[in-house]
Design brief:
Layout lengths: L2 H16 L5 E4 L5 E6 L6 E5 L2 E7 L1 E6 L2 E5 L3 E5 L3 E9 L6 E7 L2 H11 L13 E5 L2 H12 L7 H18 L3 H8 L4 H14 L7 H8 L3 H12 L3 H19 L4 H7 L5 H12 L3 H11 L2 H9 L3
Antiparallel strand pairs: 1-2, 2-9, 3-8, 4-7, 4-9, 5-6, 5-8, 7-10
Helix pairs in contact: 1-3, 2-4, 2-5, 3-4, 5-6, 6-7, 6-9, 9-13, 10-11
Protein name: Helix-turn-helix domain-containing protein
Keywords: Transcription, Transcription regulation
InterPro entries: Homeodomain-like_sf, HTH_AraC, Tscrpt_reg_HTH_AraC_N
């Protein structure tokens, strides 16, 4: 990491620490911007990444998308271009040098605006690629991030300048080595955009049973093409994707509501409580009841819920 980037990272860490005095995920006065602080490298957390630009400002982190691992540190940044169910783990953090994370969420319309204004040429026929990637941090990108974060000290500037700086950050990412992945997601004629429509359908109706023919029709693809492209983008099949959504929502419900496992199983779309228990155990390592007891004994419940809902 260059001396310039190292200096920029130190400034960014100081600002984030001021706005993240306690461990957990912290919203900011900029609606799409979140910080995270963790004082001890703990166990895995599960959640759904929204389309977002993520940085490790201090420490290190691993994110698992299905069986694929993404490792990043202050020398890198991570981008999720669509909603993705993931497993994450902070791997470097101490009370003296806590893990500090930065997440900026974005929308497809923001990407389209940048593409329109910059006149970046996009080939909609390019083959689909994984919707999550790690790229090397560049000084120009980090400079835009710091200027965005500095706005928190001048709240009156946020309404005007935050959208402009967010646009600059997205422009820098689009200009980077993996920018074409973001471009493909928003181009209506591309396969990636068609798969995004299927992902949104599954996100909004995770408790529904879908026939694969129905999903193929949404994507305007054959069944075999849908399977191939969906796996290229998400690292899993549509069924596996929906299963992860269901199980993560079930875990959240078990933590936040006084419902039993059978009731939660049916609420998230399972027809068999025993099947739910088997698949829950496979994903989280414990059956529902034992998992709840373990989490509530090991962690402060509010902290666990925070980790479940938002990963930074």
């Amino acid at each position: 990491m260059s001396e310039i980037i190292n200096k920029q990272q130190k400034e960014l860490a100081k600002i984030i620490e001021r706005y993240s005095e306690k461990d957990g995920v912290h919203s900011t006065a900029i609606p799409s911007l979140f910080f995270m602080r963790v004082s001890n490298a703990a166990g895995q957390s599960h959640g759904v990444y929204k389309p977002s630009f993520c940085m490790v400002v201090q420490g290190a982190k691993e994110v698992w998308l299905a069986q694929e691992r993404f490792t990043y540190s202050p020398a890198d940044y991570l981008v999720a271009s669509v909603h993705l169910p993931v497993t994450a783990q902070v791997t470097e953090a101490t009370p003296d040098v806590p893990y500090l994370g930065f997440k900026l969420e974005f929308t497809p319309s923001q990407i389209l605006e940048v593409l329109h204004d910059s006149e970046i040429r996009v080939d909609p026929k390019e083959n689909p690629k994984r919707a999550m990637f790690v790229s090397q941090m560049e000084s120009s990108l980090l400079d835009a991030v710091i200027r965005l974060v500095r706005l928190l000290d001048n709240p009156k500037d946020i309404p005007v300048l935050a959208p402009l700086l967010t646009k600059e950050i997205l422009y820098r990412v689009l200009q980077g080595q993996n920018g074409s992945i973001l471009e493909q997601i928003v181009m209506e004629e591309s396969s990636s955009h068609q798969i995004k429509d299927v992902i949104e359908q599954l996100m909004n109706n995770y408790d529904r049973s879908f026939r694969i023919e129905e999903l193929a029709e949404i994507a305007n693809m054959s069944i075999s093409t849908l399977h191939r492209h969906f796996k290229e983008i998400t690292a899993m099949s549509p069924l596996q994707f929906q299963k992860q959504l269901r199980l993560q929502e079930a875990r959240r419900l078990l933590l936040t509501e006084s419902a039993d496992a059978s009731e939660v199983a049916y609420r998230v779309g399972y027809e068999s409580a025993s099947q739910f228990s088997r698949e829950y155990s496979r994903m989280f390592g414990y059956p529902p009841k034992a998992d709840m007891k373990r989490l509530k004994e090991t962690y402060d419940q509010a902290q666990v819920i925070t980790e479940q809902v938002s990963n930074v």
